[in-house]
C-alpha cells in the first residue's frame, strides 16, 4: 500500500521527527541538523550551553554570526565578540566575523541544504525556507539544547498552502506579496501555521525575492514559511558554487493542506505598511502625500544584489531629495563587493546615499535613528513603535523600489513616479556570485585547550527556582493587545550592549512603555504581568522572558501568547497562562493582588483558578502546555529540567 501524499513540510518533519505524532496541535520533537545564532541572542544561548557540560556541539553544523551590534562605543560589544569567538573555537562552531554580513542571508547563501532542519535564535530564521529548508526561530536556550543534541519541541502546525498565480505588474515586488498577506491575515493570522508556497506564480520570483517573503512570514506569527527546492533553487546553488548541496524537493501531487490562500499576482499593486504594525497595509497610491525625512534600504528582508541594483537604476544620475537622509546596506560582504564592481554602489553613493556596514544595524535601532517625529521609509521587516531608535518616529515598510522613489521625490511614492519600471524590472539574482569565505572562522578539531574569554560585562545565566506551592503577588503591569518583545526589552544600542548582563539589562524592562515598572516590581519583590492578545510578538529575544523572571515575575496572564515568547517563558520558569474567559481581563487592574494556590497541581490539571484578593473575585486561567512543558516549568525551567533528567 503506497504512502499518502505529503506536503513538503510533512516530508521534512517526518524525516526528522524523533517523538510525537504529526497531527495538527500535537507536540512533536524534531532533530535539528543545523543551528544559527547571532551576537545579540547568541551570548545568552552560549552561556546556557556552557552549563550543560558538553565538550562539542552535536549538530551537523552550527554557525555563530556577528551581525547585529557592530558599534564599538565602548568595551562591551567587542568583549562579547571575543567571547563568541572563543566559544566557537572551543565547542566546534563556525564563526562569521563582524562585517561578513547578515546571518539569514549568509546562511541561505553558504550553508543551507534543502530538506534539512535549522533552528536559529532569531525570529527571522524562516528566511532560509526560500531554499526548501525547514528553518524555525526560537529562543537561545532552545538553540543551546539543540546544539547539545536535544530535540526541539513544538506543536505540529497547520500546513497552509499559499498558491501564487498570475504575473506581477512592473513595480510589484516580493515585498508586496508578503504585505498583502499581512493585510489579509494580520500579525497574528499565522499563529500555529506553516506557510508552504506553491503555484505557477513561483516562477515570478528568484531566490532572494522568495527569501523576502519567507522572512516576513515571521510578522504573521507563522512558525515558518517554505518554498519548494526547484530548478530556481538549483540555479541559485550553482551560482553559489554549491550545486553539490542541492536536493530537489517539493510537495507530492495530491498532498492535502489544512487550508488554502490564493494570491493573484496580477491584482497586486505597490503596498506600504504604515506605522506602527507590519499589518497596517495600504496601497501606496491611497496614501495622502506623505513627506519623508529618512530612507533606509537594507536588512535581512531586502538587501540582496538585485534590491540595491534596482534602487541604483532609479537613482542613477539624480540626487536624493534635500530633506531626505538616505542610507543603504548590502546583505553580505560578497554582495557589497559585487555591487561595487558592477557600478551600482557608485550610482547610489553619487546620488547621495550613505553606505552602512553589512549588518542588521538600522533595522534594530543600532544606528540611523530618525529625527524626532520623522517619517522613515524602510525595507526592514518591522515598524514597531520605537524600534528605529526614536520613539515618536513614524516608520513605513516598503519595497526597495518604493524606498528609492521616495528618497528621490521626498514623499512616499510609487516606483512609476520616479522612472519607467521596465528599466529596473529585469534585475534578478546574479548568475554567479563572488565566493570568498575567508570571513568564516573554522573551529579546530579539538577545542579542549581553548580558553574562553569573558569581559566584565558577561555575567552568569540566572536560573529560576522550582515552582512554589502558593503565589500571592500584585499585578505589576497591565498591557493591551500586541505587546512586542521590543516593548518588554527595547531593541537598540542600549539593549544590545547589555545582552550578556541580565542584572543590567533588567533595569530597562518595559522602559519605553512604562518607565516606572522596574522600580515598582523591585518594591513588590514578586509580581504578575497581565497582557492582551498576541503578547510577546516579534523578536525571539529571550531577554524579554529572562529579565522579568530575574525581577520576580512569576506568571504572565494573557488572552494569547506569541509562540516563541511563550516557549521562552517556559524555558525560564515563568508560568504562561491564558484567560479561559477573555472578559476576565477587563476585571483586573494594575496593583490588584492575585492568589494562586496549589500551583503545581493546578498547572498539571491544565486549569489554574486565580483569586483576585483586591476585587473579591475569581477567574480561571488555562495552561496550554504539553506534559513535558508542564514538568519543565514546575522544575523551574529547561536548564534545571534537562540537568535533572540526565542525573
Question: What would you say this structure looks like, in words?
Answer:
It is a single chain. This protein is α/β, with parallel strands linked by helices. Helices cover 29% and strands 19% of the residues. It has 21 helices and 27 strands. The protein has a seven-stranded mixed β-barrel with strand order 21-22-23-24-27-26-25, surrounded by four helices. Helix 17 links the parallel strand 22 (527-531) and strand 23 (553-558). Helix 2 (39-51) crosses helix 5, helix 9 (305-315) packs across helix 11 (344-351) and helix 9 packs parallel to helix 12 (400-409). The longest helix has 17 residues, at 75-91.
In which order are the strands of the major sheet placed? 21-22-23-24-27-26-25
Output mean pLDDT: 94
Count all strands and give the number. 27
How would a crystallographer describe the biggest sheet? 7 strands, mixed, barrel
End-to-end distance: 44 Å
Structural class: alpha/beta
Number of helices: 21
Question: What amount of the residues lies in strands?
Answer: 15-25%
Share in helix? 25-40%
The stretches of 5 or more residues where confidence is low (pLDDT under 50) are: none
Shape designation? globular
The Rg value, from CA coordinates, equals 24 Å
Amino acid at each position: 500500500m503506497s504512502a499518502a501524499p505529503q506536503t513538503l513540510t510533512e516530508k521534512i518533519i517526518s524525516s526528522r521527527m524523533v517523538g510525537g505524532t504529526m497531527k495538527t496541535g500535537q507536540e512533536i520533537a524534531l532533530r535539528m541538523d543545523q543551528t544559527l545564532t547571532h551576537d545579540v541572542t547568541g551570548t545568552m544561548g552560549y552561556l546556557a550551553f556552557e552549563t550543560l557540560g558538553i565538550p562539542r556541539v552535536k549538530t551537523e553544523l552550527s554557525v555563530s554570526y556577528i551581525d547585529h551590534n557592530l558599534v564599538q562605543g565602548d568595551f562591551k560589544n567587542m568583549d562579547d565578540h571575543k567571547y563568541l569567538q572563543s566559544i566557537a573555537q572551543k565547542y566546534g562552531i563556525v564563526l562569521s566575523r563582524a562585517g561578513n554580513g547578515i546571518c539569514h542571508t549568509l546562511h541561505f547563501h553558504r550553508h543551507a541544504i534543502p530538506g534539512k532542519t535549522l533552528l536559529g535564535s532569531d525570529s527571522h530564521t524562516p528566511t532560509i525556507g526560500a531554499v526548501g529548508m525547514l528553518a524555525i526561530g526560537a529562543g537561545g536556550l532552545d538553540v543551546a539544547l539543540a546544539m547539545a543534541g536535544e530535540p526541539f519541541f513544538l506543536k505540529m502546525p497547520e500546513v497552509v498552502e499559499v498558491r501564487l498565480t498570475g504575473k506581477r505588474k512592473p513595480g510589484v515586488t516580493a515585498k508586496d506579496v508578503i504585505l498583502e498577506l499581512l493585510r489579509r491575515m494580520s500579525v497574528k493570522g499565522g499563529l500555529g501555521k506553516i506557510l508552504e508556497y506553491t503555484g505557477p506564480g513561483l516562477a515570478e520570483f528568484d531566490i532572494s525575492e522568495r527569501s523576502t517573503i519567507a522572512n516576513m512570514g515571521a510578522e504573521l506569527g507563522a512558525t515558518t514559511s517554505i518554498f519548494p527546492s526547484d530548478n530556481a533553487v538549483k540555479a541559485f546553488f550553482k551560482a553559489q558554487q554549491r550545486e553539490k548541496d542541492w536536493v530537489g524537493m517539493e510537495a507530492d501531487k495530491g498532498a492535502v493542506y489544512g487550508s488554502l490562500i490564493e494570491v493573484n499576482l496580477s491584482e497586486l499593486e505597490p503596498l506600504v505598511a504604515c506605522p506602527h504594525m507590519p499589518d497596517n497595509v495600504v496601497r501606496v497610491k491611497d496614501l495622502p502625500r506623505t513627506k519623508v525625512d529618512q530612507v533606509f534600504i537594507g536588512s535581512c528582508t531586502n538587501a540582496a544584489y538585485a534590491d540595491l541594483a534596482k534602487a541604483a537604476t532609479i537613482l542613477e544620475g539624480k540626487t536624493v531629495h534635500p530633506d531626505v537622509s538616505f542610507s543603504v546596506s548590502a546583505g553580505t560582504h560578497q554582495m557589497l563587493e559585487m555591487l561595487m564592481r558592477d557600478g551600482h554602489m557608485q550610482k547610489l553613493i553619487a546620488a547621495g546615499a550613505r553606505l552602512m556596514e553589512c549588518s542588521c544595524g538600522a533595522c534594530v535601532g543600532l544606528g540611523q535613528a530618525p529625527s524626532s517625529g520623522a517619517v522613515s521609509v524602510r525595507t526592514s521587516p518591522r515598524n514597531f513603535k520605537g524600534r528605529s531608535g526614536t520613539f515618536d518616529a513614524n516608520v513605513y515598510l516598503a519595497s526597495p523600489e518604493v524606498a528609492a522613489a521616495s528618497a528621490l521625490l521626498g514623499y512616499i511614492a510609487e516606483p512609476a513616479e520616479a522612472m519607467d519600471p521596465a528599466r529596473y524590472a529585469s534585475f534578478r539574482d546574479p548568475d554567479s556570485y563572488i565566493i570568498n569565505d575567508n570571513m568564516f572562522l573554522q573551529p579546530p578539531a579539538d577545542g579542549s585547550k581553548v580558553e574562553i574569554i569573558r569581559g566584565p560585562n558577561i555575567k552568569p545565566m540566572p536560573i529560576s527556582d522550582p515552582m512554589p506551592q502558593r503565589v500571592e503577588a500584585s499585578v505589576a503591569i497591565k498591557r493591551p493587545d500586541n505587546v512586542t518583545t521590543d516593548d518588554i526589552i527595547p531593541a537598540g544600542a542600549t539593549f544590545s550592549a547589555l545582552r550578556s548582563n541580565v542584572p543590567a539589562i533588567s533595569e530597562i524592562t518595559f522602559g519605553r512603555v512604562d518607565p516606572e515598572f522596574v522600580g515598582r516590581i523591585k518594591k513588590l519583590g514578586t509580581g504578575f504581568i497581565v497582557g492582551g492578545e498576541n503578547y510577546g510578538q516579534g523578536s525571539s529575544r529571550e531577554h524579554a522572558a529572562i529579565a522579568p523572571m530575574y525581577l520576580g515575575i512569576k506568571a504572565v496572564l494573557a488572552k494569547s501568547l506569541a509562540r516563541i515568547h511563550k516557549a521562552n517563558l517556559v524555558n525560564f520558569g515563568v508560568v504562561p497562562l491564558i484567560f479561559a474567559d477573555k472578559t476576565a481581563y477587563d476585571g483586573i487592574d494594575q496593583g490588584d493582588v492575585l492568589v494562586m494556590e496549589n500551583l503545581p497541581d493546578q498547572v498539571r490539571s491544565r486549569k489554574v483558578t486565580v483569586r483576585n484578593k483586591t476585587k473579591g473575585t475569581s477567574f480561571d486561567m488555562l495552561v496550554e502546555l504539553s506534559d513535558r512543558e508542564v514538568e519543565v516549568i514546575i522544575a523551574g525551567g529547561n536548564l534545571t529540567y534537562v540537568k535533572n533528567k540526565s542525573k
